[in-house]
Specification:
Blueprint lengths: L15 H21 L5 H26 L3 E3 L12 E3 L5 E2 L3 E2 L3 E5 L6 E5 L1
Antiparallel strand pairs: 1-2, 2-3, 4-5, 5-6
Length: 120
């Protein structure tokens, strides 16, 4: 007969379920840590830059409509050809050159004044 202070042989150590749960949690933590050290891909950086330019153009168009005055905009992005800056008019239209990012071209639709992504 065993005493009360000695562990029962079947209860010594970890169960399979406890081990699997622990390994699952560790693998999730390692995945999060490993992905946080990786730099974003160049394609993702281009998409983020184009989204930022599209939002900035939309904001400048809104300012032109609300104030009733034409607004000039010179984005911090390379132009595809030499040309003028963007100009947004109070009626919601705009003129401006195309912008060239690494693998993407942003074209301004003259009637809606929205930058639209096209591939090169």
């Amino acid at each position: 007969m065993t005493s009360l202070s000695e562990p029962h042989p079947a209860r010594a150590g970890l169960t399979l379920l406890e081990t699997m749960v622990t390994l699952a949690i560790l693998s999730l933590l390692l995945t999060v840590v490993a992905t946080s050290f990786r730099a974003p891909s160049p394609a993702l950086q281009v998409r983020a830059e184009s989204a930022q330019l599209i939002r900035a153009a939309a904001a400048k168009r809104l300012v032109a409509i609300r104030t009733g005055t034409a607004q000039d905009w010179s984005p911090d992005a390379p132009f595809c050809e030499e040309g003028q800056n963007f100009r947004f008019f109070p009626d919601g239209t705009a003129v401006g050159p195309d912008l060239c990012l690494a693998s993407m071209r942003l074209s301004l639709h003259p009637l809606t004044a929205q930058l639209q992504e096209t591939t090169r």
